[in-house]
Specification:
Nucleotidyltransferase, domain 5; 3 helices; 136 residues; five-stranded mixed beta sheet
């Protein structure tokens, strides 16, 4: 004896939005967590100094890391490559400003070498980036 349902439940043609909202919330949480990580750059512990903060500009950023590695924006270079290519980079982008970020543990001689290369390329206005001091 087979059972036949003569009184079937009506079909529900609505979209279940609860699962869509769950997926949307999950994606939002993922983007909120990964957005700060995606901000590129070279990790540098800048020296602290009492100075007025500068207005952020989109200039050429030269970074010297703790190990003495040189980065132009986020491109790693050796000192020889930097010496050979900085003049061309400065001609293209020095109008917007050149900023030097050096780790506090970098030897003074390395910073002076980088500054000398920048000055030899004809860049007269170089901004040295530092962290503000903690006022107690």
């Amino acid at each position: 004896m087979s059972r036949r349902r003569t009184d079937k439940a009506p079909l529900n043609a609505e979209i279940n939005v609860v699962s869509l909202i769950d997926v949307m919330m999950l994606l939002m949480v993922i983007f909120m967590i990964t957005a700060p990580i995606m901000q590129g750059g070279v990790d540098v512990a800048l020296p602290k100094a009492e100075a007025k903060p500068l207005e952020p500009k989109s200039g050429l950023v030269v970074t010297v890391s703790r190990r003495g590695d040189l980065f132009v924006d986020e491109t790693r270079m050796s000192l020889g490559e930097f010496r050979a290519s900085f003049r061309a980079l400065a001609d293209q982008r020095a109008k917007q400003g050149v900023y030097l970020r050096a780790d506090a543990a970098v030897p003074y001689g390395t910073v002076v070498q980088v500054l000398a290369i920048m000055r030899a390329a004809g860049v007269a206005d170089i901004g040295l980036v530092a962290e503000p001091e903690d006022v107690r």
